[in-house]
Amino acid sequence: MRERDSGGLPYLYLAPALLLLAFLSLLPNLYSVWLAFTNYSLNHYSDYSFVGLRNFARILQGPEAATFARVFAWTVVWAGASVLLSLGLGLFLAILLNNSHLKGRTFYRTIFILPWAIPAFISVMMWQGLLNTEFGAINLLLANLGLDQALAAVVGLFTKDPVATPIAWLNTPGWSHIAVLAVNVWLAFPFQLTTCLGALQSVPSDVYEAASVDGATAGLQFRRITVPLLRSALLPVLLSSFAFNFNQFAAIYLLTAGGPAVPGSEAGATDILITYSYKLAFNLFQYGMACAYAIFIFILVATLSGVNFKLTGAFEDAN
Amino acid sequence: MPTRPNPIRLALTHLVLLACAGLTVMPVVLVLAASLRKGSTLISTRLFPGLDELSLAKYHELLTQTPFLTWMLNTVIVSVVASLIALVVTALAGYAFSRFRFLGRKNGLMAMMLLQMFPAAMAMVAVFRLLQYLGAVTGGVLGLNSLLGLSLVYIGAGIPFNTWMIKGYVDALPRELEESATIDGATPTQTFLQVVLPLMGPILAVVAIFNFIAPYSDFIFPSVVMFEESKYTLAVGMQSFISGNFSTNWTLFAAASILGAIPILVLFFALQRFLVEGLTRGALKG
What we know:
The structure holds two protein chains of two kinds.
Chain A: H1 9-35, H2 54-60, H3 65-97, H4 105-117, H5 120-130, H6 137-144, H7 147-158, H8 175-201, H9 205-213, H10 218-246, H11 249-253, H12 273-282, H13 287-312
Helix pairs in contact in A: 1-13, 3-8, 3-10, 4-8, 8-10, 10-13, 12-13
Chain B: H1 7-35, H2 57-65, H3 68-99, H4 105-117, H5 124-138, H6 147-171, H7 176-183, H8 188-199, H9 201-217, H10 220-225, H11 234-242, H12 246-270, H13 272-284
Helix pairs in contact in B: 1-12, 2-12, 3-6, 3-9, 4-6, 6-9, 7-8, 11-12
């Protein structure tokens, strides 16, 4: 690359982007960090002050500790299960679709990409209506097929209490966890399907042909060629999807609003860190605490992104 | 794979794919069916309306008796403003990072990547306060309840990713044309505007559409900064249809869902190839 002395011109080109970044990204983020160390809240709206690590102490060892532990654990389960289930489904469908003898592949791909092409807030609100206990189409469908009693009976074997029908998908712990996960898998599998299909199609077919000539069975080809290639292609996707689901606000907030309520805690059964932070800020007006929670989210997401950058060598692109 | 097609396996594959396709479209079909009903409630023992029950009454009600069109217009204004400003700003920055060598270039690129790690929602409270402040300073032009103010939120959040994407694209463009333009006496800015910018068309289209879809689809920020019904975006407005009273507004909401999804559906399927490639690559980059 030929070095070019461009004088002040590059800075002129960069100025609008840097100015907007400084005011709209850097400043709010730094301000958030600062607020996490203050008692800014409805009670201290105009006279808030620096309180050091008090918010963090309250979260980690104070009265909030139990809530934090529960919300944190569910956030990890939620993000992990969302990624694994949507990746599993996406990979399964991609393997089925990656078959040149199969007719109608474009048709299937178009259908499977549909959940990705609808704005997520609309899909999630649709699902909220469909999962309505008394009037929702899902329970109606299950009842018409005679499946609601059967489902309740099977689940009843594992729980001590009998399961009531119609099933209160969004209002009972357990069912609401299943419901938010199922909806999120519906939202997320098209993306995973697309990445998996891309990775599968990037394997040159002569690799498989050579393996066949050498007498490798289909199963062996899958284990020795497909899986290793997929692993390196999918690991970064896995990590960034995990980080994405940490902040998957709409899928939880618009479906259950974090509910059902948990006695003795401000956080509901399906609240994740981001929805709880939102609730602390805009329903309970505890801005300082909300920002302290946001810092935990940042640390987790930044760690994941850091690992990801290392893996993909993204930092080298800065050259 | 050089295996013969096995008809039984093919049939089974179709069976599984059809079942999954059915489950994928099911919610959309159910909502479409609900939007074509005359009544207003969820209460019905039949999943699908009979042919004699079909009607566009709910669409008519939605467009004439609710602020739906205002919300749609607000959403489009926010998204278009955000998209255009992001486009101009990141085209300049992406080009500069790709073609110029200057002090702080590498650190600038790294800083952008680090800023990208901050989840946008982390700054919810700060953005709220910032807009509150801007509103007081600008007499409401940029503050809470302002469409322009909401656009700003998205521009800030998207700059790093978009700049990186454009830089990557320009990196891959051949330099010969620029070099001959320079030899012919063109200034660097003339070279950018007349030689490189026309070649950046495809990536600029992708960036413009990304930055249109993201604000259109967002719920969290408009719910934080918009308080007046006349300033709602689609996401917040549609939520106000259903919050608390889903059963009475279900069919109206269903009609809104269908109309609200159409612009993005059309964009997505028209440009599927570019978008999917860009989005998956973006995800690979973190």
